[in-house]
Amino acid sequence: MLQFIIRRIAVSGLILLLGSFVLYVATINSGDPLEDLRESNARNREQLMEARAEIMNLDVPWWQRYLGWLTGASKCLVLQCDLGTTMSGSSVNNMLIQSAGASLRLVTLATFLALFIGITLGILSAIRQYSGFDYGITFLAFLFYSLPVFWAAVLLKEYGAIRFNRWMADPNLSLVMIAAVGLVFAILVTSVLGGPIRRQALTFLVTFLVVFGAVYYFDSVNWWQRPALGLPLIIVGGLVALAFMLVMTVGLQNRKIMYAGLITIAVGIVGYFVTRPLMENPSSWWVVLGLALTTVVVSGAIGWLMGGFERKIAMWVTAMTGLGLGFFAFMDYLLRAWSGFLELTPGRQIATIGDTRIDPARFTGTFWENIYNWGIQLILPTIVLTIISIAAYSRYTRASMLETINQDYIRTARSKGLSDRVVYTKHALRNALIPITTIVAFDFASLLGGAVITETIFGWKGLGAMFAQGLNTVDPNPVMGYYLVAGGAAVMMNMLADIAYAFLDPRIRR
Fold it and tell me: Where do the domains of the chain lie?
């Protein structure tokens, strides 16, 4: 195994080296870095040209310039990168740190969201093959996958930012809009649950009435400007988390683990009131993370004490139930801060161009309002990157799941009398997710590279802007800085996928 890992690292390093050579040569031959100065009418034009030529080492042969860059880049192995300067004399190191941080915020969040949503939809589509839900997800997946990024971004800027900000000035919904929202949710829930026609009709009617009533109530109390979950919805969220974990593990018939989960929710409610002074305005994220860790420990301990012979499963169920309850409590505090954020940023809640957050040093809001200030700018570009990845993940997961559930060992599991829940979660799902490891590796790298278009449209100062600037000005150092991050991420993620495959399937090691 060690030889396999070393061999993959060596091959990955060679690929990065060859790729850097090709990109460097292509960049320096894509135009004239002095073109703007040659067309200038400035009196000191010659001096400016000489200064730029000296900064960019244009009087040095191209291969020496490449070797100089490669020498500086190789120092990254000992955390002492020297990527040179731009044609204006700015440090590429500093530019790369700022740009990579902005891009990674987008790509990381989009990847996690796409993974969770896409894999979930793919599993449900495979389980309910050829149903209305399956056809609907298939249609939406192909639609999102074929969407031009620039077109989707323009629509989001218009409806998700400009019109949304106008609506937030005086938010209200007509009865027709409320009925449309209820209709959409009713169709979605009915298609997911399925069943006989009578049960589908009942599910559709109940869901429509519940959603219609909830949205009508929210609209009448101006919930859109002063939102909150409240203790009842937090408890409902905890119960939903418990039911989900039971269905995915031991089923709803296991009373012992169910009671452990209910006690976890009861303890969590007490903890909600006890920790209120800390959570009203936490001093830092460490307070929130510390409470989350405490929640996992206490919830796991309840599962351990009440789980009996199934302690490990009980700990897993109660820990995830506690985290689910804590998540809804977190969202309650966050939603309550929305009204304060509206007062601090009237008329520009969601920006259409760039990072328009208030400087944290000058921001006077609370901890929760600062979350909006930090993250509200990520919403639109993250949505664009997410919906495209969701389409790919859902289709790959569906195909892998369908291939797995038709295997002989799945039929053997069914013949033993195992329930569909056990067959799907403990036998089919684990093996169906093995090919997804490769897809995730490719997708993360492609998102990082494809963010160039998204960042350009939204004016986001990330790696995409850095790459475009270097390419437009025929400045190789910013382009190579982009390559170092994007190409390195692509090679690294694929190498990790290969190593993970080798662990999962020993035959690959040969």
Answer: 2-98+461-509, 229-336
Q: What is the pLDDT of residue 206?
A: 93
Task: Say how far residue 151 (Cα) sits from the centre of its chain.
Answer: 21
Closest among 66, 7, 6 to 479, alpha carbons compared: 66
Contact 20, 63 (CB under 8 A): no
Phi, psi of 336 (to 5 degrees): -65, -25
Measure the CA–CA gap between 111 and 145, rounded to whole angstroms.
15
Residue in the block written with tokens 């909006």: 372
Helix, strand, coil percentages, rounded to 5, for the chain? 80, 0, 20
Pairwise CA distance, residues 502 & 497, whole Å: 9
Q: What is the distance, to the nearest Å, from the Cα of residue 147 to the centroid of all Cα atoms in its chain?
A: 19
**pLDDT value for 317:** 92
The answer to whether 321 and 245 are in contact (CB under 8 A) is yes
Amino acid at 348: R
- What CA–CA distance (Å, rounded) separates 169 from 8? 56
Q: Are 145 and 182 in contact (CB under 8 A)?
A: no
Place of tokens 């020993």: 506
Q: Residue 349 corresponds to which amino acid? A: Q
* Per-residue pLDDT band at 359 (split at 50, 70, 90): low
Q: Judge whether 401 and 429 are in contact, CB under 8 Å.
A: yes
At 165-198, the pLDDT tens digits run: 888 888 889 999 999 999 999 988 887 777 788 8
Answer whether 252's CB lies under 8 Å from 246's CB. Answer: yes
Rounded-to-integer distance, Cα 123 and Cα 117, Å: 10
